[in-house]
Amino acid sequence: xxxxxxxxxxxxxxxxxxxxxxxxxxxxxxxxxxxxxxxxxxxxxxxxxxxxxxxxxxxxxxxxxxxxxxxxxxxxxxxxxxxxxxxxxxxxxxxxxxxxxxxxxxxxxxxxxxxxxxxxxxxxxxxxxxxxxxxxxxxxxxxxxxxxxxxxxxxxxxxxxxxxxxxxxxxxxxxxxxxxxxxxxxxxxxxxxxxxxxxxxxxxxxxxxxxxxxxxxxxxxxxxxxxxxxxxxxxxxxxxxxxxxxxxxxxxxxxxxxxxxxxxxxxxxxxxxxxxxxxxxxxxxxxxxxxxxxxxxxxxxxxxxxxxxxxxxxxxxxxxxxxxxxxxxxxxxxxxxxxxxxxxxxxxxxxxxxxxxxxxxxxx
Length: 364
Ligand code: DAH
Prior knowledge:
elongated, alpha+beta, BirA Bifunctional Protein, domain 2, single chain, 364 residues, binds 3,4-dihydroxyphenylalanine, eight-stranded mixed β-sheet
């Protein structure tokens, strides 16, 4: 009597559990149903715990029945889980469906900034001459920015640089925002063995602001060190570069003696131009325009950078990137480079799709 009623009771329980599994509307509800059935305090678990108190015969029958129900319940959970998973995927696919026939949303076309463009162009030209690109930090030690370049403390050349001084580093060493890209020469010589052939384009800083000066600007530095490079190579290299960059095959160059603490001899390079009618035009027209500084690396600089100056020699040069960009692309005011005016960028910037030919023109 007791057995048949408990068999009935189990049937009812099983039906109830299977029903709530089948009815579970989502994974959370299904989990709830699972906990109620076979969780620690679930109906089936409770009943299994009661088996211990039964006599052997009844325990065997009830145990078998409970195990069967448990298997059924677990199978039902797996089935429902599968169904809910499919339904969720179908709903997601429906929600994420894309109508490929819709017209595309208009996109604003970006432009390459003249500085980026000019850097790309000069890197390309120097790369074809065998130079690699070197980089250094914009916050420099006073040593790399000045002292190692033969500009000791109290040297008057420091005054020409309008330096932004920073608080000293943790070791008490003086730091500056680099006033030129020349400290990359120092870093390169300290970390590489000759032969060296690098250019170092990057940002530089001086406390100055007018139509031709901004507190942040860009320079590119060049450095060649080996056993035999001489001033003739310097002249050839810069001639090749400036003619390729300005795309003027007969652009004349004039090397004027000058002074930089880190080169001996030093020179400033002028390129040919005309200023007739207040219009600046580059080319072989009889007038001259200063464009960059250069020279043979001073033996003291080589020695301070751990290079044997009795064996190695070479040249260095430095020029302003804005300056050559302004000349090539006819941009009159330096300050506009950094005003972030998108109308200016649209006018003077470059399209990704419409790149002017780069390099020495050897391959194209
Ligand atoms: N560092 C110089 C400046 O900022 C430019 C320069 C001149 C760099 C001569 C050189 C060089 O490497 O040889 O004014």
